[in-house]
Amino acid sequence: MLVGEIALAFWCGSCLKGVYGDYREVNWMQVWRESNGADSTHWESPGNQAILFRGYYKMHMGDFYAMKGDKQKAEECYQEALKEFEIYPGKAGLSTFNCYSKLALFLSKEKKYKEAEPQLKTSISAAERLYNKEHAWVSKLMWELAYICDKQKKYAEAIPLWRRVVEIEQKGPNSYSYTVSDALVREANDCCKLEQYKKAEPLYKQALEIDEKVLGANHSAVATVLYELAWLYYKQEKYSQAEPMYKRTLEIREKVLGSNHSDVAAVLDDLGKLYKIQGK
Predict the structure, then answer these.
(1) What is the number of alpha carbons within 13 Å of residue 263 lying toward its C-beta?
(2) What is the DSSP string of 8-49?
(3) Given CA atoms 163, 167, 172, 174 in this order, what sign does their dihedral have?
(4) How far is Cα 139 from Cα 164, in angstroms, rounded to an integer?
(5) For residues 65 and 74, is the Cβ–Cβ distance under 8 A?
(6) What's the rounded mean pLDDT across residues 118-137?
(7) What is the pLDDT of residues 180-226, one digit of tens each?
(8) Which of 29, 62, 65, 199 could form a cystine bridge with 78, CB 3.0-4.6 A?
(9) Which backbone phi and psi does 21 adopt, to 5 degrees?
(10) What is the pTM for the complete model shown?
(11) Within 13 A of 32's CA, how many CA atoms are on the CB side?
């Protein structure tokens, strides 16, 4: 049986265990021997097939420990799998990329942003090399890298990453999608944090256009973009432009959330401050 088939059989069997909550130990050396007609000691051999099998085994065990909630063991398994793939001739290509990506996304989810950042950068380089610079995997990993840059307040580093996500997604079949509008809003938010207001305005407007077309004029996501745009105008003392944005935000949120919701109260408070400045 080929290594890919062994890995697939292992993965499928383990998935069933994950679904049914059965995480009992499995004698994978026995699986290895039966599949390869080799003595179980070959499991520890330096041969290429054994290296790849151990790498797959440890990587998938990382998945299942993560599902089980044992975060420490999950991270250890991903790290051990990487060590196996790194010594494989050609560094195992797709396998190494998959493992780097799994580890990076796992670390990001666990809010270990400093540790996740170099793993994500390595994953992006691998994805560009294995696929191309416009591939969906590149977009997904760049989104995650931009997100953790934001979490570390590295806004200047995040902005070009959000821009790349938008550019990649707009070249694909989902050029008008919530993924694009979300990246546009995040890019605009980062511009605002750096007081680059003129750059932020067209980004918010583009996101608003997409959300209205894709989600409908009265969707909560539309209200969120309107609210950000209203704040932007308010910050620049463009009060006559801010007022209709606040009013429309209020209308949508009252309709969607109800008049007693805290998000409605926040808009009313901002609108009151605006009227006070305007002398209304």
Answers:
(1) 17
(2) HHHHHHHHHHHHTT------HHHHHHHHHT--GGGGGS--HH
(3) positive
(4) 7
(5) yes
(6) 90
(7) 999 999 999 999 999 999 999 999 999 999 999 999 999 999 999 99
(8) 62
(9) 70, 20
(10) 0.78
(11) 22
